[in-house]
Amino acid sequence: MSELRHLINITDLSVEEIDHLIEVADDIIENPEAYQEICRHKKLATLFFEPSTRTRLSFTAAMMDLGGNVLGFDQAASSSASKGESVSDTVTMVSGYADIIAMRHPKEGAPFVAARRATVPIINGGDGGHFHPTQTLTDLMTIHRKKGEFKNLTIGLCGDLKFGRTVHSLIEAMIRYENIRFIMISPEELDLPEYIKETLDNAGIEWKEVRRLEDAIPELDVLYMTRVQRERFFNEEDYIRLKDSFVLHRRMLDTAKEDMIVMHPLPRVNEISVDVDDDPRAAYFFQALMGKYIRMALILFLLGMK
Amino acid sequence: MNIDGVNTGLVLDHIKAGEGWAIYNLLGLDKVDCTVAIIQRVQSGKYGKKDIIKIDGDVDIDLDILGYFDDKITVNMIRDRVLFKKVHLKLPETITGVLECRNPRCITSVEQEIVHQFKLSDPETKKYRCVYCDTVYKEKN
């Protein structure tokens, strides 16, 4: 029997394994019929201790497109966690009902605790502000489909770089590839944390910070937008002063490269104007679709089927 | 001042001067059933002044905890009045069940039965991270 694997952090996967997942996801896109019964009689449990729309639905759609079944809950109130059951006990029990588990939990480290006890693979679908590896796989799949390869890219990360876990994971994943540059675009209050800057410096990655989105756009191959949240600011004045510096409008793309892509983990609120949606460079809904394919590949990989 | 040698037991040497009592408490030496001596501010060629703890008895001490507290301490293991092993401490790779994660968003903050565990992430700065949430351990927040 092969070794039980989990996905807690994106660094649990080697570059080769990520390449493999992308290759399988590509094949799924090309030949969906070949996969539509592959997980027949297999069950995915989605244990969502906090609400989620995209992540849970994409896991569900992924397993359904593989011909498998899905069971689970979508908030802690409808699970035995509301009665005080521990994560370990919940996953030990669910391990008997499902072949693989995707879980989201508001507390950091909960999927790691689950993985220590589970007898089936655990996929971290987000643990608080900590890790969200399947979002990173989604981002990588999107960049792969749109840009072809993971090298010679200038990536702009815009918005909340301090608390944005998707940004941190994407940096961790991308610095393993050749000739990647980053431009950090954020208000000073939401700068990248020092430890991530150290990670970039230690990896010898070229990066810089700018305070205005317009200043970075002409250089970018990928623009990754995130939401600037009002509650992150100490005073309302700073928020009002800064919020519009980080909203992307269609006219701002006039100086962008023709083949630049605009990404966003969604949900967006105001940070990308709807007038960008029809621009061919808008890739965020495409990105959500890629999330399903890469999760299909991940499920097959962790089940030892591909 | 004369303190008897150890027959079978341990001599913790090169303790930073003034830290002897803290080590005594850390290792729970008040609870052991044997002779324990703390010798404070001994002249040392290496460090100027140092503390020494002598334990005359067969006790188990957690070298990982001791290494975390002060990796300069030397542990001399004595058997029948003869030094049979000298251990130079180092920072442990993991520390289990001693330090507590103070991140209120960590799973350990809500599930009391999870054993707190930290792993060494940077030996130069003695930085330990919680294995669950990756938060850096701080002595006092």
Entry summary:
Chain A is α/β, with parallel strands linked by helices and 306 residues long. Chain A has helices spanning 15-30, 54-65, 87-94, 110-117, 133-147, 165-174, 194-202, 213-216, 236-243, 284-302; strands at residues 43-48, 69-73, 100-105, 122-127, 153-158, 180-185, 206-210, 222-225, 261-263. The mean pLDDT of chain A is 93.
SS class of chain A: alpha/beta
The biggest beta sheet of chain B reads: 5 strands, antiparallel
Radius of gyration of chain A: 20 Å
Total number of helices of chain A: 10
| Uncertain residue segments of chain B | none
The SSE order of chain B reads EHEEHEEEEE
The first-to-last residue Cα distance of chain B is 42 Å
Tally of distinct domains of chain B? 2
What would you call the structural class of chain B?
A: mainly beta
Helix amount of chain B:
under 10%
The CATH architecture name of the largest domain in chain B reads 2-Layer Sandwich
Number of domains of chain A: 2
Assign the CATH class of the largest domain in chain A.
Alpha Beta
Give the neighbour order of strands across the main sheet of chain B. Answer: 2-3-1-4-5
How would you characterize the overall build of this protein?
- The complex is a heterodimer of chains A (306) and B (141).
- Helices cover 36% and strands 15% of the residues of chain A.
- Chain A contains ten helices and nine strands.
- Chain A has a five-stranded parallel sheet. A four-stranded parallel sheet of chain A has the order 2-1-3-4, sandwiched between helices.
- In chain A, helix 4 links the parallel strand 3 and strand 4.
- In chain A, helix 5 (133-147) packs across helix 6.
- Chain B has 141 residues and is mainly beta.
- Chain B has two domains: 9-88, Aspartate carbamoyltransferase regulatory subunit, N-terminal domain (Alpha-Beta Plaits), CATH 3.30.70.140; 94-130, no CATH class.
- Helix content of chain B is 10%, strand content 38%.
- Chain B contains two helices and eight strands.
- Chain B has a five-stranded antiparallel sheet, covered by helices on one side. A three-stranded antiparallel sheet of chain B has the order 6-7-8, with helices on one face.
- The chains are: A alpha/beta (306), B mainly beta (141).
